[in-house]
Design a protein that fits this description.
By secondary structure, the protein is an alpha+beta fold. It folds into two domains: about 1-75, TATA-Binding Protein, CATH 3.30.310.10; about 75-205, no CATH class. The chain has five helices and eight strands, in the order αββββααββααββ. Strands 1-2-3-4 form a four-stranded antiparallel beta sheet, covered by helices on one side. Strands 5-6 form a two-stranded antiparallel sheet. Strands 7-8 form a two-stranded antiparallel ribbon. A hairpin with a 2-residue loop joins strand 7 and strand 8 (about 180-185). The radius of gyration is 21 Å and the shape is globular.
Length: about 200
């Protein structure tokens, strides 16, 4: 039977089924999300937008198994390996760090974040992907890309303030026994309200 997750009872049963199969049900990140969860393969989201119910990520496979009556959901190792390979591809470009906080992380501590979410017309193209830690992933959710950029800059600024780092480059030299320190401040002006940049926007950060 092919059901759609419109009713609260269906969602409640699906949540229990997910938890029995080892998934962690997460808090929604915006009013449109009906369900968000995470398992060993990644994150799944069911949300109700202008186009109706949309199921993304792990939720698509999970819902298919749930509606056909499967009692168990054995995660596919091949998918996990593919996910790790994708993470390593992104890390080769940006480093093994949380892009939002700048902290070095183990590959298993990083999640893939879509800058333009599926709800905003985003894709799995690598230019639309970054690696972030789980707390940052939760905060970013399905926000519009401009809001995500703003939030990422806020998280970076907070991290910099906590570690006494500033958004500047300092050059220290000596002349005639005196120490001369020159500081170059640099800023960033971005406006991606309408369309994605032609090249990855983090190249400008």
């Amino acid at each position: 039977m092919n059901r759609s997750p419109y009713s609260d009872s269906d969602l409640a049963q699906f949540k229990m089924w997910l938890e029995r199969n080892g998934a962690k049900v997460l808090d929604p990140t915006n009013p449109y999300e009906l369900l968000r969860f995470k398992n060993a393969n990644g994150t799944g989201v069911i949300y109700n937008g202008k186009r109706g119910i949309t199921i993304t990520g792990e939720a698509e496979e999970g819902w298919k198994r749930f509606t056909r009556g499967d009692q168990h959901w054995k995660l596919v190792t091949r998918h996990r390996q593919s996910l790790k390979a994708r993470k390593l591809e992104i890390a080769a470009r940006d480093g093994m760090i949380c892009f939002a906080h700048g902290d070095a992380k183990h590959i298993n501590e990083l999640t893939i974040e879509h800058l333009f979410s599926f709800a905003q017309g985003g894709t799995d193209n690598i230019n639309n992907l970054i690696l972030v830690c789980e707390p940052a992933n939760q905060k970013l959710g399905n926000l519009p890309v401009a809001k995500k950029i703003e939030l990422i800059m806020q998280m970076r600024a907070s991290k910099a303030a906590n570690t006494s780092k500033k958004n500047s480059i300092s050059l220290t030299t000596e002349r005639n026994g005196d120490t001369i320190k020159t500081t170059f401040e640099h800023g960033l002006d971005m406006n991606f309200e309408s369309e994605p940049p032609k090249r990855p926007w983090w190249r400008f950060l």
